[in-house]
């Protein structure tokens, strides 16, 4: 067997392993979201809060220890870092409330983005090769966006639930893909 054949076999085995492991992790995530949606959302919020604290510490360090930045830049880094640390600590202090607030924020954000996406689609309908599908997409996007704005927490819950279903289904697909690779 040549060196190229061994390298190709190793690559295929690595790819196969990556698909299978990724699929298993995706299935686990999907199951966790579907069985314990609130707890899983709190864990995700906790991870974001931890990231926020770490990012805040980095910004603080940049502002305090930087010798190349000017006064306003240093002050901005310190202020941003302090804000990040405060938000992260507040999030950990009441994780359940922060999770609900974060879900509402995401629901409103997605709602606004869907409305904008629908409006943009309507603005280019004349250039589209499939006018009917473009109009249908735009109308559905705007309706879904408005619904999310009126009930962002419920909408975020539905989106979270759909994420769980998608993660589970995509995990199965990735495992099948990984098992179908032949070295």
Q: What features would you highlight for this structure?
A:
6 helices, mainly alpha, 183 residues, extended
List the helices and strands and how they pair.
Layout: H1 3-35, H2 37-65, H3 71-93, H4 95-123, H5 131-150, H6 152-180
| Uncertain residue ranges | none
What overall geometry do the principal axes of the alpha carbons give?
extended
Strand content: under 5%
The largest sheet is: none
Overall mean pLDDT = 92
From N to C, what is the helix and strand string? HHHHHH
Structural class: mainly alpha
Q: Helicity range of the residues?
A: over 70%
Give the distance, in angstroms, between the N- and C-terminal Cα atoms.
13 Å
Q: Number of DSSP strands?
A: 0
| Number of helical stretches of at least 4 residues | 6
Radius of gyration: 23 Å
Can you describe what's shown?
The chain is mostly helical and 183 residues long. The chain has helices spanning 3-35, 37-65, 71-93, 95-123, 131-150, 152-180. The radius of gyration is 23 Å and the shape is extended. 18% of the residues are buried. The mean pLDDT is 92.
Summarize this, please?
The chain has 183 residues and is an all-alpha fold. It is built from six helices and no strands. The chain starts with a helix and ends with a helix.
